[in-house]
Design goal:
Elements: H1 2-12, E1 16-20, H2 28-46, H3 53-62, H4 64-71, H5 77-84, E2 89-102, E3 105-118, E4 124-131, E5 135-137, H6 141-171, E6 176-183, H7 188-199, E7 204-210, E8 214-221, H8 225-238, E9 245-250, E10 253-257
Helix pairs in contact: 2-6, 7-8
Length: about 260
Amino acid sequence: PEEEAFLNNYLARLQYMVYYDEKAGIDAASAKVAVNQANRYLLEKLGLSVVDFDQIEKNKKDQQAAYQSETGGSIDLIQFIAQKYNADVYVEISFSSTPSASGGKFYATAQGSMKIYDTSTAQLLGSIAFQSPQVMSTVSSESAVGNAVAASVWAAMPKMTDQTKSLGKNSMSRGIRYEVVIQNTPDSRQISTLRRALAKVVREVEQVSYSPAETKLALFTFKSRDKVEDALYDAADRAGLLDLYLVYSRGKAFTFNSGL
């Protein structure tokens, strides 16, 4: 019951980061309308904090060096930024619009999809298709397109958040997945003791890889990030890694140094 309560509470407080598909050839103005409308829904309907369009654009430039240093390009830059903001999922919007004009009025429809990704693993959780009715503007074709995009994104958001919670609950049946990297691990016996100590306080421990330079673990548990970090320190003490320390954390990923 405690795990069920934790998971339901976790899913109710999921943090989203919304951005657009940069490979889809969407113009910047329409992309901003789509992202801002999705964020408006998350703010007004769900009371969640959001990462706005301009923040992401700025971070794409400011975080480039850190991104290369920390990941070596092994993950997508947008996934990296979503992890930096502790987003649980990131949503990629892709769409096209069909404008027309008649009798001095401007019309448009918009159609596209929202893809939902797990921020930690980049696993595709689901996809929602959307299409707007024909929208009219007396101002301009751009205004009609903007209105069509905004209407279609707003209408799709309840489906997107419902699907995220439903699919997230299924994918987290073993617990929330945390990635742990421990640098400088020359003694495999200590790592074995660490794994066994962790297995007593989390649902599952998987050893992804081992070398004297670095060990990677995947932990599955119904615990918060802080509790996972505390569990690592306790298990490290039992394994004789008394000087273990956190190098950095990003989203649900931790990097420690053994202190050896």
